[in-house]
Design goal:
Strand content: 15-25%
Radius of gyration: 24 Å
Number of helices: 14
Helix content: 25-40%
Low-confidence stretches: 1-22, 390-411
């Protein structure tokens, strides 16, 4: 009994002594997640096993496969159904006849290659390419397009190898469009979503504790998934641009979810992060994934703050929280925001790590970044460290417990 009392007292004392001055203000109080946006896409071609592997090595908690569907109904990782830029298909003469024109979410694409016109076997003959200018092209054409099954296998194998839980964060790309593809291929309208669910349940079970998030910019597919799975669902929130005053520009097709637009609905992305909108999202999703300007207001006031002789997005004045993170948490929704890049799209910051840290201080629950190592460094920089005296107290306490135990044994 005496030992138990000492242990309890020491635990309470150590907890108090070790308590940091400022803890994470995330929804669950835990450290925010670093999500590898399309893999380690700042360094290697996006959506490749090799890119995901590098992201894991750099410390990612989750890897993100954007999902589209092949001609034979296999879910694969590509950022878009259009694959002319993300693969070397245009350089292969045998596929020259596959060029065609289609419309996705109201936008026309002429003379392009589309993933649903290729079988998996054909897709596996292609090589992935770097899609952003200024990034390394060393690996262009060397890596293959992975299937969802291959991404899951990688995450599971690396979880065992590293002793860390490596999760996956699939996005259903253009569900309305893919539903049309499914019907045209003679499959059910919900084949895209149903295949994802059955695959995830087979791999992880039907549980909200699975290391998986399913994300989408559309609403009806998430509402459907909410009736089919307990895996965590995330409503993505988009916009077209940021205005000089810090407000969001909403221009189609970035003004509202496409499934809402095609039905003539009025619900905009901006509406979704209002108090009423967030309460609506909470009826079918577990979290939101808003574009970062929705969370931190920055203003273009024409001042060259970093002194480089040009006024860019980096020079915007940072005014602080918009209140969206706080409101989302009040509605029980976590917030995972995107996309942080060392080489682009910094608003109000010249240092990419400092930008990430600013959002982490807001209380976001996760960040999507092309540069996993910078995200990991940002989280580490803000991670509370117990005071040295706390360690001394713990060691002294353990010694006291050991002494009591030894005395009891010799009694």
């Amino acid at each position: 009994m005496q030992t138990k009392l000492i242990i309890s007292a020491l635990a309470a004392a150590f907890a108090g002594a070790a308590a940091p001055a400022s803890a994470w203000n995330t929804l669950d109080g835990k450290a925010p997640l670093v999500i590898a946006h399309r893999g380690a896409s700042g360094y290697m071609p996006e959506h490749t096993i090799e890119g995901y592997t590098k992201a894991i090595a750099l410390g990612a908690n989750y890897i993100e496969p954007d999902l589209v569907m092949t001609k034979d109904g296999v879910l694969v990782a590509r950022h878009e159904p259009i694959i002319g830029a993300s693969t070397n298909v245009a350089s292969l003469a045998q596929f020259a006849g596959r060029k065609t024109s289609k419309t996705i979410d109201g936008v026309s694409y002429a003379n392009e290659y589309f993933v649903e016109d290729f079988t998996l076997a054909e897709l596996k003959t292609l090589g992935a390419m770097q899609t952003r200018a200024g990034r390394p092209t060393t690996f262009d054409g060397q890596f293959k397009v992975p299937t969802l099954d291959e991404v899951i296998a990688l995450a599971k194998a690396k979880s065992i190898e590293t002793g860390r839980s490596i999760g996956i964060y699939p996005e259903l790309k253009h569900s309305t469009y893919m539903q049309g593809v499914s019907l045209a291929q003679g499959r059910s309208k919900s084949y895209f979503e149903d295949t994802l669910v059955s695959t995830l349940h087979a791999a992880y079970g039907n549980t909200g504790n699975a290391p998986v998030f399913i994300q989408s910019f559309e609403v009806s597919n998430l509402q459907y998934l909410n009736t089919r799975t307990d895996i965590k669902l995330v409503q993505l929130v988009d916009a077209d641009d940021v205005k000089p005053d810090g407000s969001l520009s909403l221009v189609a097709p970035y003004d509202k979810p496409y499934d809402v637009a095609i039905k003539g609905g009025k619900l905009s992305f901006a509406d979704m992060v209002s108090d009423v909108g967030l309460s609506f999202v909470a009826t079918y999703a577990d979290g939101i994934g808003p574009w970062k300007p929705y969370l931190l207001k920055t203003v273009d006031d024409g001042i060259d703050r970093n002194g480089d002789g040009a006024v860019t997005g980096k020079d915007r004045r940072v005014d602080g929280s918009t209140g969206v993170v706080e409101s989302a948490h009040a509605n029980g929704l976590f917030v995972h925001t995107w996309t942080f890049r060392n080489d682009a799209s910094m608003l109000g910051f010249s240092d990419p790590q400092k930008e990430m840290e600013a959002y982490l201080k807001l209380g976001v629950d996760g960040i999507f970044t092309d540069f996993t190592d910078t995200g990991v460094a940002a989280v580490a920089a803000l991670t509370p460290v117990p005071e040295p005296a706390s360690y001394a107290l713990l060691l002294a306490g353990l010694g006291a417990v050991g002494l009591v135990v030894r005395r009891r044994r010799s009694a």
